[in-house]
Amino acid sequence: MGEGAVADEELTKEKHADELFKDFREVSITEFFRKNRAHLGYSGKVRSLTTIVHEMVTNSLDACEEAGILPDITVAIKEKGPEHYKITESDNGPGIPAAHISDVFGKMLAGTKFHRNIQLRGQQGIGISGVTLYSQMTTGKPMRIKTCTGDNKVVDIQLLIDITKNKADIIETKNYEEYWRGTTIEVEVKGVLYNLSEQGPFEYLRRTAIANPHAKITFIDPEGRKTVFDRSTNEVPKPPSEMKQHPKGLEVDDLVNMAKASKSRHVSSLLSTELSRVSGAKVKEIQELVSFDLNKNPRKLAWAEAEEIINAFKKVDFMAPPLEGLRPIGEGQIKKSVLSILNPEFETTLTRPPKVHSGGVPFQVEVAVAYGGKAGRVAGEGVKAEVMRFANRAPLLFDAGGCGITTAVNGVEWKRYGIKDFENSPITIFVNLVSVHVPYTSAGKQSVADDDEIIKEIRFALMDLGRRFQRFHSRRRRAIEQEARLNTLLKYSMELASAISKLIDRDKEQEKIAKDLEKFIREKVKFDEELLGDAESEEELTEAELEEVSEEEEDKTEI
Amino acid sequence: MGEGAVADEELTKEKHADELFKDFREVSITEFFRKNRAHLGYSGKVRSLTTIVHEMVTNSLDACEEAGILPDITVAIKEKGPEHYKITESDNGPGIPAAHISDVFGKMLAGTKFHRNIQLRGQQGIGISGVTLYSQMTTGKPMRIKTCTGDNKVVDIQLLIDITKNKADIIETKNYEEYWRGTTIEVEVKGVLYNLSEQGPFEYLRRTAIANPHAKITFIDPEGRKTVFDRSTNEVPKPPSEMKQHPKGLEVDDLVNMAKASKSRHVSSLLSTELSRVSGAKVKEIQELVSFDLNKNPRKLAWAEAEEIINAFKKVDFMAPPLEGLRPIGEGQIKKSVLSILNPEFETTLTRPPKVHSGGVPFQVEVAVAYGGKAGRVAGEGVKAEVMRFANRAPLLFDAGGCGITTAVNGVEWKRYGIKDFENSPITIFVNLVSVHVPYTSAGKQSVADDDEIIKEIRFALMDLGRRFQRFHSRRRRAIEQEARLNTLLKYSMELASAISKLIDRDKEQEKIAKDLEKFIREKVKFDEELLGDAESEEELTEAELEEVSEEEEDKTEI
User: Fold this and answer.
1) How far apart are alpha carbons B130 and B476 in whole angstroms?
2) CA A492, CA A486: separation in Å to the nearest integer?
């Protein structure tokens, strides 16, 4: 540290710390996002418009799902001038209680979702206030909200955000009676652009419909064209339920915070009531592994003690996290909605059982592969591989390059499964990550962090589908090859029969000889086929082998 | 909206809005980032460690630069157990005034940089508090800070963050005298991993040294090995200065906010004193274009009036933003530090003049291309193209796929410049984006948003270098071809000379004939060469043609 010693002469030219810190101040979260709008997805004209639609629609779907309502959503985009649009979104959801409207739309980091361990599309309490902010930043106009919770008392309100205070600035409120339940919101923005690109609102809504077969979504585009994505099922999905954290993957910090806030009288009861899958018997096992009495007061749990408990969790076997809290789309529905429109030659879907990622957060992976037919993405004259990413059924259209789902897809050696040139194959990969907390890389929620557990799980699921594809593919290849072989042999069998009959001078038996030969050939080819089939099934990888494969490759993903 | 009408029977199964909103609450910014740590770059073990080093080092470099001090920084990483490290970072910077220490390290969204229009690496007031948070989340231990502003009064403090209040929780403070100036910080974290990968701390510091030739950086790795990246210049870079916003690219919202906060008495004086390049003459031009008197009180400026001014800005010509506020590395320094270590066959650098991106924010692009020698990235047996991304001299090692710099590099048709297989070429592309506000895609600051202006500017700069490469490449190719042609001709010239001399029966003149022939051939080859050279120079694209090219391609980038 001697090198930092102060030379008087130097100091005269240098600035003193006090001068540098004279402007030190705190900013509000709204000021922060106003300046860093790209964090929220507001970069680029098309993307900004899609972001607005995304925030509106995910809120409506979440609200309907929680309330147990079949969603009926309408989105209308109207052009008001160059790069200037009005967006109106309307749902038949539960409505918003009057007391909360201003915070929902005019305050960031406020909401019902952040602190609950429940699977919803939204989770941050930022997105929809971000739309209000973007509207006021580009046109100076307020967001207008009309909502009713079913009591016929409609609130019709217009608000801006007070940026320095991070709270709503209410411009106008009207109250009136109407027999209606739902929410309609409207904003006017500039600096955005509507087009039909793969990252535009139309494609966003199309994919939303694919992953939400219970939702009816109506879209009216700037030219007034109406598209209805109708629901393919009338079943109301069971509302997601709040889940306790699972001990596996829970971190010391989580437990310490939980203990501080706990109302339990003993650490032992905290463990058995506030965590998932911790029975009284498990508490006893944990007691054996720690150096202190689990009867102690949770508010007095020290970091080192919490660390002992977390280490004990790693040694104890617990049941896997419960299924009921997570709401996958389900293999049947995926098949119906995703695959039917692609009309592929081959299709397969898989919903893996739930796992936990960091912090004891349960998650689940659903994947599907479609090959041939309309699968893949049309690019110029050819077809390219297409990856449809979803998180809790919300489409992820942006930031594919930085997304863990992309990492997982690229981590599969498709060649091994007979897909030689993955990039240029007529293939659609569908991945839906279901979790009570999706580790997004930014507040814009368009890509998932490279979490080892999540990537591994998606990769395994895709490898499983890869093996299924391989079986189909090699069966198809074998069928083609067998047919070719058979045809060749049969072609010669006639000539051979003729030659043989001549040789043995029994012309009239030529037909019988030919038939015998054909029968012999067909049997022989079939026999070869069966032998081949057996040999090939041995090539399959078992789950154990897969684990080995992944162990070897672990270095690659550990970044 | 009739479809949303309430059926009594339905409601009985559905949940009411009041029930759904019973858990509505506000969270602090620290709680938000605690749960969404991936936004700050804490995803993956290696990345998390690099993020910590990054936050520490950028703060030190910023502080030294602002104070006009030649930075001397030491980073030491010590292994305490499996995935458990202690990181110590020390600088000879200006120190931190005692009153601000707790906010700098223990409060998010507080700092000296956010609201100033000045080019610094840090800009959010989040990063270093994020390190404190990550330390307490993984080990429960406080960050320790020892600092002195040069008055010999050392403050040695240990603090955590009170997550719900977003403020420092001070554990211990010691005050003593020492003849020293600078700051040393220390944290202990778990769940991280040190390795020598391309995304590890060593590579991070190596690249930091490359882009900051005035800094001396000492690194002590977990095995105790010491590496010194010494400075290659002793010149203290001129501290960056605060810049006024430039009218071009300023948005209505910016002007409205500026007007609200302004101390000017008239809108006209606001324009001429608070913006860059707006002279009295320009104010008169603007007055001609708007419908109201610019003498009005800025606090009374309406949105529509601000919009008129912004529209007027678009029609008026202003001087380009001033150079002095931005601090590029400079072509000479890039050449010295970036290119010398690669020892390439071909190298070229370019610092473009400043431009403005959204919100009137000045920015500047520096690019370099190195080809051959040690350029490129060693991958297995071969060499692949390498892109080194920097923003305000800070290396961007992560999220390359989602970064606008990557979009720009991929947007260049390298084939046009004679690089047939870019991906597999021994080429290093260096890009440094210099700006008073870099539009990062997330709080982790590892990728730049796809801003049209920025992408265009980087692409143009790279296309320029591409043309330079092409000239070198075709010269080199021509040189090789010419040599080959010459050698072939010369080889036959001896035989030809011998044949001619025999033919005309003058054996003794054979030598002279050979010499004449050689002279003739050499001249002929040289002449061809010159002709070729002239023809080729006509192929060059002018700036005007480039603009056209970009216009055509604009659709691609407008997302």
Assistant:
1) 51
2) 10
Residue A129, min C-alpha distance to chain B (Å): 13
Note the pLDDT tens digit of each residue in B320-346: 877 677 888 888 888 887 766 788 889
Q: Are the beta carbons of B165 and B72 closer than 8 angstroms?
A: no
Mean pLDDT comparison of A101-110, A230-239, B484-493, highest-scoring range: A101-110
Last residue of a domain, one of B415, B441, B466: B466
Interface test with A, best of B37, B89, B107, B181 (most A CBs within 10 A): B181
Per-residue pLDDT tens over the stretch B377-388: 888 788 999 999
The total domain count for chain B is 4
* In the predicted structure, residue B529 carries a pLDDT above the cut 70: no
To the nearest 10°, the Cα dihedral for B439, B441, B445, B450?
-60
How many other β-carbons are positioned within 10 Å of the β-carbon of residue A182? 28
A451: contact with B, CB 8 A cutoff:
yes
State whether the Cα torsion A373-A379-A384-A389 is positive or negative. Answer: negative
Q: Which residues of B touch A442 (CB under 8 A)?
A: 39, 441-444
Do B183 and B146 form a contact (C-beta atoms < 8 A)? Answer: yes
Interface test with A, best of B13, B28, B34, B39 (most A CBs within 10 A): B39
**Token match 């999706």: residue?**
A438
Contact call for A44 and B450, based on CB within 8 A:
yes
Q: What does the pLDDT look like over B151-203, one tens digit per residue? A: 999 999 999 999 889 999 999 999 999 999 999 999 999 999 999 988 999 99
- Beta carbons within 8 Å of B227's beta carbon, 6+ residues apart: B202, B205, B218, B219, B221
Task: From chain B, pick out residues whose CB is under 8 angstroms from the CB of A140.
Answer: 252-253, 256, 303, 306-307
Cα of A390 to nearest chain B Cα, Å: 17
Same domain assignment for residues A122 and A209: yes
pLDDT band for position B128 (cuts 50, 70, 90): very high
- Rounded to 5 degrees, φ, ψ at B174 are -125, 140
Entry pTM:
0.81
Judge if B110 and B205 occupy the same domain: yes
- 3 state SS of B379: strand
Q: Are residues B295 and B146 in the same domain?
A: no
The strand order across the sheet containing B181-190 reads: B167-177, B153-162, B143-149, B181-190, B84-91, B72-81, B216-220, B226-229
pLDDT at A423 > cutoff 70: yes
Give Dmax over CA atoms of chain A in angstroms. Answer: 121
Q: Contacts of residue A69 in chain B, CB cutoff 8 Å?
A: 10, 14
Residues of chain A contacting residue B64, judged by C-beta atoms under 8 Å apart: none
- Kindly indicate the confidence band of residue B359, based on its pLDDT and cuts at 50, 70 and 90: low
- 234-253 of A, contacting B, C-beta below 8 A: 236, 239, 251-253
A340, A488: one domain? no
Is B121's pLDDT higher than 90? no
Selected residues 305-334 of chain A with any CB under 8 Å from a CB in chain B: 306-307
Nearest-CA neighbor of A74 among A228, A197, A279?
A: A228
Identify whether residues A182 and A35 lie together within a single domain: yes
Q: In chain A, positions 1-60, which contact chain B (CB-CB < 8 Å)?
A: 1, 3-6, 10-11, 13-18, 20-21, 23-29, 31-32, 35-36, 38-39, 43-47
Q: Hey, are the CB atoms on A184 and B1 less than 8 Å from each other?
A: yes
The conformation of residue B5, written as its DSSP 8-state character, comes to: P
Q: State yes or no: pLDDT of A550 exceeds 80.
A: no
In this prediction, residues B223-234 reach a mean pLDDT of 92
Q: Output the CA torsion A536→A541→A542→A546 (10° steps).
A: 180
CA nearest A35: which of B383, B435, B408? B435
Q: Does residue A178 share a domain with residue A36? A: yes
CA dist B62 to A346, B11, B239, Å?
57, 59, 9
